[in-house]
Specification:
Length: 303
Amino acid sequence: MSSLPTLADSVRLGSPEPRPCFFLIGPPRTGTSWLHEVLSRRMQLPTPIKETRFFDVHYHRGWKWYREHYRETSAHQVAGEIAPTYFASSDARARIVETIPAAKVACIFRDPIARIESLYRVKCAYGVIRGSFEEALLHDPELVESSRYATHLKAWQNALGEDRVLGLIYDDLCRRPQAFLDTLADFIGLERFRLDSSERRRVRASRYMTRPRSYYRTRAAILLANWCKCRGFYRIVAAVRNSPLRGLCLGGGPPFPAMSTSTKARLYELLRPEIGELETLLKRDLASWKGLASLKPGEEPCA
């Protein structure tokens, strides 16, 4: 008796060319919001949300659910997904390899301590975590795990092949955005384009964020929004996001204190071997990432 087809079998049988063909997998807080804004005008990305979280969270919903986010995909248009949570997810990696083995993947690497601090602020602002930075380091493994750059980059290279995995540097995006995008476009097969002046602005920098007025109210609002997204009620989420109700759920609390020098030093010591190995993998000098960051507390040169 033949076994039931797997999701990978269904994908291949149901579509001659599975989509998307490339993933920009972050990790989080590496300019992906800005890139989504810029790339969504030139290629097919999931709609009406930025991140489907299909390959790491919603895989059980099936390929049909995922494909609903690509309704307008043209056979002649590059399609992809900007998915920063996939970077450190072994489940996402295995599932992408299984269902879309020809996919290309791009990663963006940022000073890991600045990135961890930025991710902490965003998670606090949206009610995902609470407490001090030091407490969050103990209770939220993603903060540090997503900064194990060399470990996860090698895992993606081993899974897809080195020629299908591109490593980029966040500093290049901030200082030379046009050259950065040219490199990315060439890799994914997208025709090069010129940035206009409006596209060079910053997007969603965490330094402007504060803690919420009420953690529990913010937490409840985010859980409700996620529930609505899973069931396709995107208009409800958008309506609330664009209304005065947003101000009741996000922000309004005290500002975030700067990370202590001792905590920063411990993190640099912990992640220095990863940075050293990443230098070898990318053939880049990342010496500025190995000591106390030159950025001021909370400073972000771009998204």
